[in-house]
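2.7 Reproducibility. Because tokenized structures are sensitive to small changes in the input, we list the exact sequence used for Putative restriction endonuclease domain-containing protein, including any N-terminal residues retained from the expression construct. No trimming or masking was applied before prediction.
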Amino acid sequence: MSIAMTRHLFTVQEYARIREAGILTEDDRVELLDGEIYVMSPIGPLHVSIINKLNKILMNQVGDNGIISIQNPIQLSDYSEPQPDITILSPREDFYTSALPTPDDVLLIIEIADSSIDYDRDEKLPRYARAQISEVWIVDVHKSVIEQYTQPLQGEYTQLHKVLLGNIVTATTIANVCIDTTQIFLFAP
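Resulting structure tokens (single pass, no recycling of outputs):
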């Protein structure tokens, strides 16, 4: 006789209580996707470097037209609270003090994929599409390519534009965001 095993899916509120109770700490690299807690890849120097470069570029380009949020959670649904590497949020006077940003607040998500390309494409990207996030970039560090996903429809992105090294990627969702890939992929010795 076999016994059917069930899994407990956590809500965003239960997940918050787990953190508040100290079971998960600020140092734990985890995120909630469809009720399940996922352990994220460790962050190495290359990952950090690209985030720092993009942060500097984006702060200059976005200015007061958005809020640059680095590795902070967004609430996609009652069961999903991912932590994108970079999110550009709609400006708000309270800087999201009263609640986490939701899909309606997101202008652009950028994921840096040095060891997490499959996870970013297969796990996170479909959830962003289902939540109707208008634009997501996956920065493929090893291939020096930015994958620009736009036009979510029925849970998937209908447009994929690959921007190779030496070319420029321009955001479709926020004015003035235009990045030359050499600025992020070429490293000083």
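The beta strands are 30-33, 36-39, 67-70, 86-89, 106-113, 135-140, 145-153, 156-164, 168-170, 178-180.
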